[in-house]
Amino acid sequence: xxxxxxxxxxxxxxxxxxxxxxxxxxxxxxxxxxxxxxxxxxxxxxxxxxxxxxxxxxxxxxxxxxxxxxxxxxxxxxxxxxxxxxxxxxxxxxxxxxxxxxxxxxxxxxxxxxxxxxxxxxxxxxxxxxxxxxxxxxxxxxxxxxxxxxxxxxxxxxxxxxxxxxxxxxxxxxxxxxxxxxxxxxxxxxxxxxxxxxxxxxxxxxxxxxxxxxxxxxxxxxxxxxxxxxxxxxxxxxxxx
Length: 241
Prior knowledge:
This protein is an alpha/beta fold. The chain has one domain (about 5-225): Phosphoglycerate mutase-like (Rossmann fold). Helices cover about 40% and strands about 15% of the residues. The protein has helices spanning about 15-25, 45-60, 75-85, 110-115, 120-130, 140-155, 170-180, 185-195, 220-225; strands at about 5-10, 65-70, 95, 160-165, 200-205, 210-220. It has a six-stranded mixed beta sheet. A hairpin with a 2-residue loop joins strand 5 and strand 6 (about 210-220). It is globular. The termini are far apart.
């Protein structure tokens, strides 16, 4: 039996989220963060959110057959704290294809920083659009979708019924783009109107007519556990660690 129910979880608030939001708020050009993207940890709020996610995991009982997670520290921390003492049938699958989008020369730049330091690149992005623009040394959304197609082709037909994926907002948006499916315009319109909140749960189910979105970016478990709900949008090309 292939995977018929897939839960997508964004990592809890990270130190990068906090630094990026502060830099944007203060009008800085560069985000003050000296940690490489793969090593960015959860903030104290993010740790609280991940522990609150544990209540949701326990509410599913033993219905999660497999766990898939980005290799980035903030995602692995989120899954580890969410599982806590919950017994799992298998070890989580850590796969580099689930990593966050790489921004190349735009890494650690705010919206202002991109405009000031790389105005030609900002103009190129406006011309190509968010989906196909690839910063030098980085990835476009189309690039991320390509590696996600590879991962999903390998894992969605495995003999398990349910799976939980813990990753990043761009990854969650692009998994939806692939499975629902959406075209470029539909994805960009959806992303402009919706944000994947930290430690939120998005649910997809497979039907006879294809995949269907059941819930998007649900944070009821955070509210029930008294954890902060945080919104750090990844819409701009500033890092959304």
